[in-house]
Amino acid sequence: MNNTMAPGMKPLMREWTYLTPAEAIGRWLVWLAVVAATVWAVRSIDIIPEFLADAPEQMADLLVRMWPPDAAHYYPDVHAALIETLHIATLGTILSLFLAVPIALLAARNICRIPVLNVTAQLILVSSRSVNSLVWALIFVAVFGPGPAAGTFAIAFRSIGFVGKLLAEALEETAPGPLEALTAAGAPWGSLMLKGVWPQVQPAFWGIALFRWDINVRESAVLGLVGAGGIGVVLDDAINFFQWDRVATVLLAILAVVVVAEIVVTRIRSRLI
Amino acid sequence: MSATIAARDAFKPNWTARLGLIAVALYSLYAIGQLDISWARLSVGFGEAGRFLARMVPPNFARWELLLEGMIESLQIAVLATVLGIIISLPLGLMAARNLAPWWLSAPIRGVIAVCRSLHYVIVAILFVKAIGFGALAGVAALTVASMGFVAKLFAEAVEEISMKQVEAIRATGAGPGAVLLYGVLPQVASRFIGFSLYQLDSNLRNSTLVGIVGAGGIGGTLFAAFKRFDYDFVCAILLSIIALIFVAELVSGRIRAALR
């Protein structure tokens, strides 16, 4: 039956495959690379077997020492540190917004038409993002000395890259129409930005600011480990004295604040956007 | 005569926004007072910053063996944590998706994911350093927890957005739960899952350069030690290497993401 098929039907008998041979080989190569990287990492990483063997025991010991949390320790020490952490996160976010807006304007190719400035601004944003907030904290502790000032600046400088990048992307997506209309009406640069660009990026701006604040609340909780103020200082003290019940209190406090911050941000976002 | 049209003011002042700005300004002043940030301190600080920067240049690559060893260990931590995190996130994400799993399963799993995500990885690393001792393994464990929190959450959200038509079609052929997952659910989310995994590899690479600060392996320990010994030229070398590594990683993952699209 099949043999007597008309010659024109030949293409219909083609066997369909999901991937072309090149794609299939490419996928295998990717899988090979993943497996090779994993094997390499497992074989050459420094693992001390004795430590691994008693890990469950140590973990259980840790949990037993943590329970019950030392609730009496919460007020006033942990409470004050918690408030300080929130201040660091909020003030750092506000500062980063002020610093990031001009850099984002320079980085957006439709606002600033000078390529050299675009690249410079992108470079600033990338280096701000590549250095972790704890490393920024180390740097600012060296500059300002230990304390919340270092933490605030660390949070601000780490956030510039994040806010600036997202804001520059939002700026580049704005419609050129309102800007052209304002330019045609002879509006000065300030009015162009305020009435042509700002209304378009406003929702994105508030979204980015809230999102970053949420992240900053999390990050400012650990800055104290390197002496940059906030609840991390209390945590570090408790860990160094092996007061694990106090550690548990601090961890629960951090967890509560982070969850509350996330809920607040989600609420405000749904109302704003 | 036509009715008089009220003059429209297109640019009328937005009083709520102005009040909000004033509130933000007042809060900033209050917080600055609370955190004890004064102009005197800042100006001293900026002087110190100048000295600090002066001591950072030129970067000192003389101890490049130490640097390379730390970077490789960080890379290993990142790879292992990502692989482990992805392997664990796959079932967790499926179990947390409310359209596939019953509520008594999805609710507690969502709780676990939320806790993983809420605790900063450095804090988790401290706990693991206590539990499994100093070294890279604690870093791997800590970053695995962080990866679980992130990948599983996004994966669960992706699964919740799938079209149920294909799932129903596979079910209608009499397929068991395994086949439904394999042919009805996973093909719809696979590409997004790969995207999340790549992103997580990127961020694990960033974070693995840091967990060493609390003794969990990688370049972070070397960095922290150099800071403590005021070896700022070596600090500069380490920071430059980290930035270069992350920059390369971002380029590579950007290429891969573009190729996948």
TrEMBL record, chain B:
InterPro entries referenced in this protein's UniProt entry, alphabetically: MetI-like, MetI-like_sf, PhnE/PtxC
PROSITE patterns: ABC_TM1
Bilayer topology annotation: Multi-pass membrane protein
Pfam families membership: BPD_transp_1 (PF00528)
Keyword set includes Cell division: no
Gene Ontology CC entries for this record: plasma membrane
Organism superkingdom: Bacteria
Compartmental location: Cell membrane
Transport is among the record's keywords: yes
Membrane spanning residue stretches: 15-33, 75-97, 208-226, 232-252
Alphabetic keyword roster: Cell membrane, Membrane, Transmembrane, Transmembrane helix, Transport
MF (Gene Ontology): ABC-type phosphonate transporter activity
Domain ABC transmembrane type-1 per the UniProt entry, residue ranges: 71-253
Similarity remark: Belongs to the binding-protein-dependent transport system permease family.
Protein name: Phosphonate ABC transporter, permease protein PhnE
Species for this entry: Falsiroseomonas algicola
Taxonomic classification: Bacteria, Pseudomonadati, Pseudomonadota, Alphaproteobacteria, Acetobacterales
